[in-house]
Structure formats: C-alpha cells, structure tokens
Amino acid sequence: MRPFVALRVAIFLIAACARPAWAEGCFDAQGKAAKPVYLTLDTGHMGVAPLMADILNKHQVKVTFFAANERTQTGDGSLGSHWAPWWKARAAEGHEFASHTWDHSYWRGDLAAAPAGQPQFRIRPSAGPAEGKDFTWTAGQYCQELGRASARLAEITGKKPLPLFRAPGGKTSAALLAAAKTCGYDHVGWAPAGFLGDELPSERYPNDFLLKKALRDIQPGDILVAHLGIWSRKDPWAPAVLEPLIVGLKARGLCFATLREHPRYKAWIASAGAEPAVKTAK
Fold this sequence. Notes:
The protein is 32% helix and 16% strand. The chain is an alpha/beta fold.
C-alpha cells in the first residue's frame, strides 16, 4: 500500500473509532449506555413528512411513529394507499411503529360498565366517517380500534409494530389504560420537557422560542413528542425546528433511541411475543 493511501486509511479508522456514542445508536463501542432521548412522532396532515424523513435519515436518528389514519393534505389518509410506500421506506430505515388508534379517537370519559361487566368509555373520533361524533364504546371496541391501526401498520411496512399505543391528546383514564393492557397495549405519554410545542399557535410560541426551550430543558431519558404536520399552526414547527433540535441535542451529548430500548417498555415488548390481541366487540 502506498504511504499516502495508508495514511488516509489510518485517519479513517481513527475517526471511525472516535465517533461519539450517538453515531452508533445509544451505545459506544464498549456497549456502555450513553444518554438517550426518545423522539416519537404522531401522524398529522403529512405535508412535511417527506422533509422530516430526510432529516432523520441524514442524521441517522431512529424514532417511534404513532400512527392513526388521519386526514392528510395529499392522499387518502395517513395510513391509506398513497402513504403506504412512505411508511415502508421508514421501516427499511429501522424506525419503530405503534398504534395511535385508527380514527384518532379521543377518550372523553369513563361510563358505567356494560351489562356483561365490560368497562365502557365515551369516545370521539377526530378522523374518519364518524369524525366529531360521540360514541359509547366497550373495552373490546377500544381494543379493536387499537388493533386496526397496528394491523394496518404491519400490512404496509412488513414489520411488527410495538405493543404500545398513544391515546390522542394523551387523554386517558386508569380504566382505559387497564382495558388496553388486557389486549396487549401499554400506553406511552411524554416528558413535560418533551412536549415540543408544534401544536401550539405560532403567533404566541414561535419556532425559535420552542427550539431554545427544548434545547435548554430536555434531559436524558425524556420521551419527546411532535407530529407529521399540524393543520392549525401557521408557521410550521417541522421541518424548521427538527434539524437544529437534533444537532443541538447531540451537541449536548444526548443520543436518540426508539421505545424498543426504553427501560420502562423493554420488558413489556419482550414479553409480547406475538401481535397484540384484538378483542372482538360485543
């Protein structure tokens, strides 16, 4: 080997060995844990989804997507055929997926148990043909709703979703969480500092304010939440804030991991074994 070529190879190997922990996920070459944060992205109007995916891929950041079949700027719903190739590409990149309910259905309150003893809930979908209407659902019907989103994700990505869910708006009750666990789903919220603010009005919460707050307050172990497009925000949070947020958190020595690696959920995921069960509505 020529001396010049050998020198370049040596420099490359030294640089590779000196890469920070986040370049190898959340573990260094010795397998020592670094300081992870867990970025999660819920579905939205999807208009910014391609740009967000480009940024994640550029910086080798893996996230957990919580998906519902929401109304989109383009196509037939965020889990429809139009967006199926986009989801499949994210699976190939190593991201994780979980249910956000099928029709982005909000828990509105607990109700008296059904005659058969099943818990019941007042539920209001914010997408789909029943958008904006209130319904009384049994625990089994809610489980069906969770399972429908998971099944669709598995169908279009070819990857088994995590046995997790996020209730729209993070709105739950103890009874709802217990019902979801009986059919194989644990709930995922977010850290107070992990609320990235993309749902807030940009007139009062501009992007630079949200970025500075996040970079200041986020701590190792925090679960972060943002969306694949918010209809109501005039100055979109994404992709403008996403890249400087990633760069800034990495500069603080933090790394990005999926919820598969989260200490609270690792045992639950490992014990799931099979696809989460879907109870039949009665």
